[in-house]
Amino acid sequence: MRLSARIIWLVLWTVCVAEDCKGPPPKQYTEILTGSWPDKPYEEGIQATYKCRPGFRTLGTIVRVCKNGEWVASNPSRICRKKPCGHPGDTPFGSFRLAVGTGFEFGAKVVYTCNDGYQLLGEIDYRECEADGWTNDVPLCEVVKCLPVTEPENGRIVSGAVEPDQEYYFGQLVRFECNTGFKVEGQKEIHCSENGLWSSEKPRCVEISCTPPEIKNGNGIFNKPVYKVNERYQYKCNRGFHFKERGDTVCTASGWNPQPSCEEMTCKPPYIPNGFYSPQRITHRADDEITYGCKEGFYPATQETVVKCTSTGWIPAPRCGCKLYFNIYLNILFNPHNPEITLLNMDKWR
User: Fold this and answer.
1) pLDDT tens for each residue of 257-281
2) pTM for the whole thing?
3) Is the distance from CB of 207 to CB of 178 less than 8 angstroms?
């Protein structure tokens, strides 16, 4: 009798303690609940099984049990995780970046870009990781091309030429030259740029010509409006000026050569050993005159003691000579047969 009472008490206690779950089992966004679960209470101990949504996976089966009025996971470590897609694939002459997500797993998106001088072949530049793997094919990069270029009129392509109407590739260089009597107007070299355009317009070949140069302190001898290549232009300098190089210049592709120029004629202060001069100036210009003299015992070596600054220097050159040797010279000149006179004069100056 006592044992039966205990059993009855245990049954009553279990019924009183056990609590039903008030509604169907919950589910996460990544999970799909199997079976039909109407909105009603569920008894203690009933189990619910789950599977993962497309794009997610787990090891084993996810099970939740109604226990003490709550749905409790029988194995909490079993959860649905994003399904990996693996490496999306490299593309030659390009690269990719992860635009969405933190790894190569479901929901991720990678965007491809091409290196400089290359462009995508097609419009799709991305791949997305979906339930069945990566979408699209790996985008491809092709080299950028520039339109054909032709020879300029009165000129030619000297390097980098291809067949007529053939496109050029990124980085290819084309060099131009002009025929004799013509010069390049523009860039002598152009290259196919990364945007598919030439770095500059094709140059023109224009006839070489020169207009009369402007010459400071000088003028042309014979002028005409235009000079052709290799034609010579003659000029003269104003009074007090002289040519820096020469009195003519030649028309070339780069202009007049040498550049015509007139510079002021000047003379350095004269160096007169045993002499002096006046006036003393900072700069002696063309046609300036000075008067020079000699110290005692010396004589001017020129008839005139006034000398002039010219394009070749001082004319006549001022200098002082020694009187002793001057008298000896005179005696020999006028008394060639009377050496005694010469000796007497030498003794006089000893």
Assistant:
1) 999 999 888 899 999 999 999 999 8
2) 0.56
3) no
Instruction: Tell me which DSSP letter residue 224 carries.
Output: -
Asked whether 90 and 96 are in contact (CB, 8 A), the reply is yes
Determine phi and psi for 343, rounding to 5 degrees: -65, -40
Q: Are 62 and 77 part of one and the same domain?
A: yes
- Same-domain check for residues 139 and 151: no
* 21: exposed, middle or buried (Cβ count in 10 Å: 0-12, 13-18, 19+): buried
Q: Please state the length of the chain.
A: 350
Domain, as residue range, for 106: 94-143
Q: Is residue 86 part of a domain?
A: no
- What number of H helices and E strands is found in the chain? 3, 35
Judge whether 116 and 142 are in contact, CB under 8 Å.
no
Encode burial over 110-135: b for 16+ CB neighbours within 10 A, e otherwise. bebebeebbbbeeeebbbbbeeeebe
* Structure tokens that stand for 89 in this block: 């694939």
Please give the Cα distance from 265 to 160 (Å, whole number). Answer: 53
Q: What is the DSSP string of 129-164?
A: EETTEE-SPPP-EEE-EE----PPTTEEEEES--ST
What CATH number does residue 114 fall under?
A: 2.10.70.10
Q: Which residues contact 275 (CB under 8 A, 6 or more apart)?
A: 292, 293, 294, 295, 298, 300, 318, 319, 320
What is the end-to-end Cα distance of the chain in Å, rounded?
178
The answer to whether residues 296 and 313 belong to one domain is yes
Per-residue pLDDT of 2-46, as tens digits, reads 545 555 544 444 445 578 999 999 999 999 999 999 999 999 999
Tokens of 207: 């006839």
Containing H/E element for 178? strand 173-178
Q: Which residue has the tokens 């993962």?
A: 52
